[in-house]
Structure formats: C-alpha cells, structure tokens
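Risk register update: the risk of archive-format incompatibility is retired. Evidence:
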Amino acid sequence: MPTNRRKPSGFVSLLLLLAGVLLFWLTVPNLGNAARAATADGPRGTFTAARLVCAGHSGHTTCEWSGTFQSLDGTQKTPNVKLYGSDQNTFKAGQTAPAVDVGNPGRVYDPDGTHTWIVTLLLALLAYVLLITTAHRHLAPPTTTPQHTPTEPSQSRPADAPPP
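Archived output:
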C-alpha cells in the first residue's frame, strides 16, 4: 500500500530538536529551585536591604533590592543577595523583611512563596512536547491510506427506463 506521508523535513526536525534541548537545558536544572520557591522551602530569616539594583532594556527598567540574608538561627549569613519581587518602592536602605533562602544562588524569596514555578514548568513541558514531536516525526511508522480503485463509468439510463 502506498503512503501519503512525506518524509519529515530534516531542517524543521533540527529546529524542533534544538529548541527542545535548549528549553530543557534552561528549565530542568531550575525545577527544584522553582518548587522550593513556590512552597518557601528553605531556611527562614531576615533580608536587610542595602542598595537598589536597576537594569534597563528596551525602554523598560526593572529594579530589585540587594542586601544581606541572615537565617533566624544565625548560622547562615549571605551577602549580596536580591529579594525576588522587590522593586523601587519596596524598601529604603537598612529596612528589613522576612525572607527564605531556597538555595537559588544570589536570590532569596518572600516566605509566602512565588508563582515563578508556573513559567518554569510550562517551559519544561514545552521542551518535552518539542522533543516528543521530533521523535514521533522520525520514529513513528508511516501512516497508510487505503488504495482507491478507479470506478467504472456508470452507464447512462433514462430515469423512466426499467432496471436491466
């Protein structure tokens, strides 16, 4: 039986594969930190604001407060960390706020958790879909369609003629 499925484009498959691998590379190592940030799983402590750090790009400026994290039990003191979700109006230098260190280097989080896990999870799922699509394009058996036989032309008969 002949197939109607064309051979997958090598270029398109390469793009899908590269996009999937890149997204996996970017997201999978961060899944643990995203889950811990969502549940505020880590040592609790205090963030002390030291300075406002701003970055401008494409006509938009984002700012976060940088400072020091001190765990409640006093065993951990981490300088030069940013409080995720802080902005220009959150603090003045020297002010403190509760924070959680989830293990993400250079960043601490609000004890109520965050929603950053949603983006990380969606990108990891997109990577999975891209890789599965690429594998399916090359590993799935070809689809077949039934063979159509040409029909014989019908003989014309007047509508009032009796059947043969």
